[in-house]
Design a protein that fits this description.
This protein is an alpha/beta fold and 312 residues long. The chain contains ten helices and 14 strands. Strands 1-4-5-3-2-6-7-8 form an eight-stranded mixed sheet, with helices on both faces. Strands 10-9-11-12-13-14 form a six-stranded mixed sheet, with helices on one face.
Length: 312
């Protein structure tokens, strides 16, 4: 069911949510968290759809914040969706004029009580999410450097503004790669002298994986460019020969180790809903992400050492 409220107030929105819960027979909200989405009109549909899919595993109150026409008179419009896509509730808040500068004061009364808060910027996010008014409300703050015009610079800026509770979907995209690489390198191998991560140009996940490997093994891992999709290869240089995990098609990877037959493993690229679902499973600080950001900032400068600028 969809309810449209024009020139409304937070009190009227809360009353509408309560009436809908009672209509659906719910005595309690059943929400396990609040998800604030800071977006624009062009990006709200995809972001809310991804959040609704994630809400099937994590029932949540989704509050989409859309700032419109800052020079207009202050006005709040709301679009409420309940009972359509699983157990979550969705409220799109369109704020006009000066009201948009105080979005946190509008959102705070609408949060489901006694449940964690996650704030997600699906587009280009702030350099220091913890200092944003809607970030202050949250225990977990999610950005996506891949949506920035300069993804690598966005990660360096994120390292300067990092606080516990910050994370980025570029790091979430690395989870499958990191799990497979860690399992591979847990097996006996020769001494590692370096390595190379190859991916599409300006791929922030590849930059993070290179920094993570550099931090784990204490040897330099460079970056090279390919035609994609996404990350296409991670190569370890060892005393016994190269260990290579190659994924040219975005779906299946081939692991090559010296003296062993090649092995194929599933390694598909995940969409926003899958990434967000993973992030909502873990609301505690991600210390490894913080350490990797710091390593990246320490080594990257204006370019990653050892990177080849021409695309292969």
């Amino acid at each position: 069911m969809t309810i449209d409220l024009t020139s409304t107030t937070t009190g009227a929105i809360r009353d509408a949510l309560t009436r809908e819960r009672q209509r659906l027979g719910g005595q309690t909200t059943g929400m396990v968290l609040n998800l604030i989405i800071v977006t624009d009109e062009g990006g709200q549909y995809d972001a809310v759809r991804a959040a609704s899919e994630a809400g099937r595993e994590h029932p949540c109150r989704i509050l989409g914040v859309i700032i419109r026409r800052p020079n207009a008179d202050s006005r709040l419009d709301a679009e409420i969706h309940t009972g359509e896509a699983g157990p979550s509730q969705t409220v799109l808040l369109r704020m006009y004029g000066p009201l948009g500068q105080h979005a946190d004061s509008v959102v705070r009364p609408l949060l489901a009580a006694d449940t964690p808060v996650v704030t997600w910027w699906p587009g280009e996010g702030p350099a220091c999410p913890s200092q944003e008014p809607l970030g202050v409300l949250a225990q977990r703050r999610v950005t996506d450097a891949a949506e920035s015009a300069e993804p690598r610079e966005a990660l360096v800026a994120a390292s300067r503004g990092y606080r516990q509770g910050d994370t980025d979907l570029s790091w979430t995209r690395a989870t499958s790669w990191r799990s497979l690489l860690a399992a591979t390198m847990d097996q006996p191998h020769g001494a590692i002298s370096g390595g190379l991560v190859t991916a599409e140009k300006d791929n922030p996940t590849a930059d993070l994986i290179a920094a993570w490997l550099d931090h784990c093994f204490g040897v330099p891992f460079g970056r090279d460019n390919s035609g994609g999709p996404g990350i296409t290869e991670v190569r370890f240089t060892t005393g016994d020969g190269d260990i290579v995990l190659a994924r040219p098609d975005g779906r299946t990877a081939t692991l090559t180790k010296p003296g062993q037959p090649d092995r194929r493993v599933a390694l598909h690229r995940r969409d926003s809903a899958e990434l967000l679902t993973e992030e909502l499973r873990r609301l505690n600080p991600d210390e490894v992400y913080g350490e990797t950001l710091a390593r990246l900032a320490a080594t990257i400068g204006s370019a990653v050492p050892g990177e080849h600028q021409d695309e292969s």
